[in-house]
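Ops channel
N.P.: pipeline sanity check, posting one input/output pair.
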């Protein structure tokens, strides 16, 4: 049991169960109190009550998931985690010292954005610089997608939260009209209060889940976009320092054509008659 509790997933699941149980107990107590004062005329529909509990469970799980995602983003989606300064400086020192073997070994095991992107390019060095740049760009794009995917569920929760709350609102109104029907159209305020209160509480719950999730998603998306852009530019700069010098290459057709044009435009000295006679006598 101790080893199971030490896992973060188990702790989050246990916390979710406790939160849902607490909310369910509070909701059931509130409904009973609202209906108890109205006498025996009010009897909650068990089907509607079960659906109401289901909405509460979903909202509770969504709120726990939103909090967990926000904590995960705070801990891991930082510039110091994605592109640490010490890692970048170590890679730069290896490049300046021309220690390419050590560079390969370090970038192969390091988990930072810059190391993964640079390793994807360096390992294709035998294919040429163009292949190196292509590998770096592909690795950077893949890492960017993985990082943005970690906060995408915040956007999903933020968009689906009000819809779940709206479902609970509809259920609460159905419960209120069910009480009105059960009393033959002579329901008291106490008979309708439970359904109306349930509808409003579900609306509040959906908004309470959605608003923080959307705010957190917008904040982390902007910060992550800025951090990923900087890391990509830094990786490109480090790869550029590994670019081989352009020596020993054949002259391009454009350069050859330009050289021929310059040679054709150079003036040629004319031979005079005296020069021709001197050449004949010789």
């Amino acid at each position: 049991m101790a080893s199971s509790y030490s896992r973060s997933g188990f702790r989050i699941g246990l916390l979710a169960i406790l939160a849902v149980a607490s909310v369910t107990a509070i909701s059931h107590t509130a409904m009973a109190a609202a209906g108890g004062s109205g006498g025996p005329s009010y009897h909650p529909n068990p089907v509607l009550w079960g659906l109401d509990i289901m909405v509460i469970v979903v909202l509770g799980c969504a709120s726990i998931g939103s909090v967990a995602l926000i904590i995960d983003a705070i801990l891991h989606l930082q510039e110091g985690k994605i592109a640490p300064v010490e890692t970048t400086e170590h890679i730069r020192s290896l490049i300046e010292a021309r220690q390419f073997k050590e560079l390969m070994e370090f970038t192969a095991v390091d988990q930072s954005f810059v190391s993964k992107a640079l390793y994807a390019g360096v390992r294709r060095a035998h294919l040429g610089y163009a292949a190196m740049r292509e590998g770096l760009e592909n690795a950077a794009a893949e890492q960017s997608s993985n990082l943005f995917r970690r906060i995408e569920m915040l956007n999903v929760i933020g968009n689906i939260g009000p819809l779940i709350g709206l479902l609970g609102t509809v259920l609460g109104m159905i419960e209120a009209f069910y009480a009105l029907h059960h009393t033959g159209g002579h329901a008291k305020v106490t008979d309708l209060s439970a359904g109306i209160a349930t509808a409003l509480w579900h609306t509040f719950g959906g908004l309470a889940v959605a608003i923080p999730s959307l705010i957190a998603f917008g904040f982390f998306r902007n910060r992550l976009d800025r951090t990923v852009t900087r890391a990509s530019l830094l990786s490109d700069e480090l790869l550029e320092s590994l670019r081989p010098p352009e020596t020993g290459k054949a002259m391009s057709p454009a350069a050859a054509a330009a050289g021929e044009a310059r040679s054709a435009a150079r003036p040629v000295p004319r031979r005079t008659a005296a020069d021709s006679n001197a050449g004949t006598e010789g």
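N.P.: looks fine end to end. Residues 1-7, 32-40, 247-282 have pLDDT under 50 and may be disordered.
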